Amino acid sequence: MSPTQLLSTSISSSSSAFLAAPFAFKARNQNVSFASKTPSICTCAAAPQEQKTVYKTQVSRNANIAKLQAGYLFPEVARRRNAHMLKYPDAKVISLGIGDTTEPIPEVITSAIAKRAEALSTLEGYSGYGPEQGEKPLRTAIASTFYAGLGIEEDDIFVSDGAKCDISRLQMVFGANVTMAVQDPSYPAYVDSSVIMGQTGQFQKDVEKYGKIEYMRCTPENGFFPDLSKVSRTDIIFFCSPNNPTGSAATREQLTRLVQFAKDNGSIIVYDSAYAMYMSDDNPRSIFEIPGAKEVALETSSFSKYAGFTGVRLGWTVVPKQLLYSDGFPVVKDFNRVVCTSFNGASNICQAGGRACLSPEGLKAMSEVIGFYKENTNIIMDTFNSLGFNVYGGKNAPYVWVHFPGQSSWDVFSEILEKTHVVTTPGSGFGPGGEGFVRVSAFGHRENVLEACRRFKQLYN
């Protein structure tokens, strides 16, 4: 049977009634014509589609991660900024929200990074894995620069890829069964890592808190230092000074009380000193300036906001040998084990940059960049003060904490973004104690900071 005959047989045997008019089909050199019968109504019955089944494993989701609320604060701010930019493609959006540095890294530091990178292409300069704890010259430089005379030695220091990463490693050390306290408001990584680790209860929407976390309320009324007489005993106390987001710095007397509180309760303080170089007051730069702190505290810090290393990634954590568990076992040995298990050490290229940071020329260059950001802070502080707002922080940190009493932080964030095209950070993202506040970052090019302040004045005058 020819192809044409096959086609004719196939079509004529079909029950379809879609051929309602004469139809001609040309197959190569032949013409084949089909005449339709009397036109009739066409009815089509769709064959039922098989329901797609999605394959699922038999692995249960981590119930602790499921406790987390919405997205992590800073990606959520970035998401809303991006949506705003799509809505207003021609607007010049200024970001004073996420605390990311903007000014170039000083050349004395980048040249050291480049030199180390180029050396890796030579037999003499190549190096592979380094010590997980960090290269000894850098650890020694950190000890002598930031902890001189405080009894902190090179082998107490662990160089890392940033303080935020070390916070999660410390949570691995402490495990799921510890209790924890945190300043309220505070950097959200402390709480979120605690939730993921399984240290907390469920999120309580009525109070905007997680169960089993002790929220140490920090307000203008108590000078942003918690009333320790009202704080319950916990195993771990996260404390940041100068504080992110409030910009406040604890005094020597306040930190002395905190250390004594930890001793009385047998607690461990995780002290975040990532903004210590921004200190203008005569307040402690390190918790280890307080007598007895080495027995109850460890400290984490970073080059991110000192040298513009937010993308380079380099920080450190100090765990004194004197810090012991209840059974007398040194905490430093467990931290070392976690570091060796989960980390191969900071980039050797970045560590070369860290050493350059701590040279006399590097320290001078870092101080100049920090001074630039502090000038930005003063401009922002003066702007909001002139508009009649209650403004906090600024003096000892690159953050300005502005009070909008009776208003939702996210509503204020949205209004500022919509009407000025300036990105800030809603205070409630740092904990329930941040509701009614907005954090304004001083990290920005000078012209952008001045323009943002001009827009603030236009909005609130």
Describe what this molecule looks like in 3D.
The protein has 461 residues and is of the alpha/beta class. 36% of the residues lie in helices and 15% in strands. The chain is built from 13 helices and 17 strands. It has a 7-stranded mixed beta sheet, sandwiched between helices. A 4-stranded antiparallel beta sheet has the order 13-14-17-16.
Query: What's the mean pLDDT score?
Result: 91
Helix content: 25-40%
Radius of gyration: 31 Å
Number of helices: 13
Low-confidence stretches: 2-40
Secondary structure elements and pairings:
Blueprint: H1 3-12, E1 23-27, E2 30-34, H2 73-87, E3 94-95, H3 107-119, H4 136-146, E4 157-160, H5 163-174, E5 180-184, H6 188-197, E6 203-204, E7 209-210, E8 213-217, E9 236-240, H7 252-265, E10 268-272, E11 297-302, H8 304-307, E12 315-318, H9 331-342, H10 348-357, H11 360-386, E13 391-393, E14 399-403, H12 409-420, E15 422-423, E16 425-426, E17 437-441, H13 446-460
Parallel strand pairs: 3-15, 5-8, 5-9, 9-10, 10-11
Antiparallel strand pairs: 1-2, 4-12, 6-7, 11-12, 13-14, 14-17, 16-17
